[in-house]
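Retry 2 of 3 after timeout on previous attempt. Resubmitting structure tokens to design endpoint.
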């Protein structure tokens, strides 16, 4: 079973890229972030035509998350929105049950400029995520929490880390929040299989970042123990970042041993 995450940076504007990637790689489940589309503007017809069912949580102009699954998989929506703050109107989290697995798709706040209110919101969001993740682990159901975390966990995950020390994606308190989450018992899929390799999932549009391999690893798969034991492979579709009119993120994927449907 192949599961992918992809920050599309505008689902309608990047739709040809998304459809091409789906056709070429055929993942079973896809988590999308940064739809930048209100609920009624999600391109469901095109997604269905590509062979996928979908649930989504849209928002005008920014944010927005979605989960796609091939038509032979049923998607049971569990929640839209992260619990813990009824006043938070950002569309940043959606959760579903697919083929025996709970899958949470997230777009964690950027937090810049830092310090300031945006960083404070990011850290509060991290606290809510950590609390919710703890509850998911307690249920003992195979669970994956994936998406754009907007954090580079270690210096290995960022090109020239000394330039990012004051950025909200790399500040110590943000990295600590990610570590506290993982330390609950989650497995970082990429680092389990590639503990020492330089792997990036994001390349800025400026300064030829993609061509220079000057990237960041900010798109992550966290696996509960019951999924981590089934992990077979993982990777980044880096070539997609080189396509015309593409996102600044690359698709990231894992393959796990199939469960009984």
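Retry 2 succeeded. Sequence:
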């Amino acid at each position: 079973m192949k599961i992918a995450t992809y920050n599309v940076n505008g689902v309608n504007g990047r739709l040809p890229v998304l459809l091409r990637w789906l056709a070429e790689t055929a993942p079973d489940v896809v988590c999308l972030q940064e739809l930048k589309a209100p609920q009624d503007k999600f391109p469901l017809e095109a997604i269905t035509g590509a062979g996928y069912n979908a649930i989504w949580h849209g928002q005008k102009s920014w944010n927005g998350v979605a989960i796609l699954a091939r038509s032979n998989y049923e998607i049971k929506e569990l929640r839209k929105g992260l619990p813990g703050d009824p006043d938070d109107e950002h569309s940043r989290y959606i959760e579903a049950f697919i083929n025996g697995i709970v899958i949470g798709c997230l777009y964690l706040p950027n937090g810049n400029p830092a310090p300031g209110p945006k960083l404070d919101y990011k850290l509060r969001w991290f606290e809510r995520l950590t609390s919710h993740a703890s509850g998911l682990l307690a249920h003992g159901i195979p669970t994956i929490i994936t998406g754009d975390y907007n954090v580079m966990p270690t210096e290995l995950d960022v090109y020239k880390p000394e330039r990012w020390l004051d950025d909200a994606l790399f500040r110590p308190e943000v990295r600590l929040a990610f570590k506290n989450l993982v330390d609950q018992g989650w497995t970082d899929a990429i680092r389990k299989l590639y503990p020492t390799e330089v792997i990036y999932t994001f390349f800025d549009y400026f300064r030829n970042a993609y061509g220079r391999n000057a990237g960041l690893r900010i798109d992550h798969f966290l696996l509960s123990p019951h999924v981590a034991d089934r992990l077979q492979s993982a990777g980044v579709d880096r070539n997609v970042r080189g396509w015309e009119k593409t996102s600044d993120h690359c698709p990231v994927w894992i393959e796990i041993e199939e469960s009984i449907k």
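Attempt log closed. Helices lie at 15-25, 44-49, 117-139, 172-182, 189-193, 209-212, 225-228.
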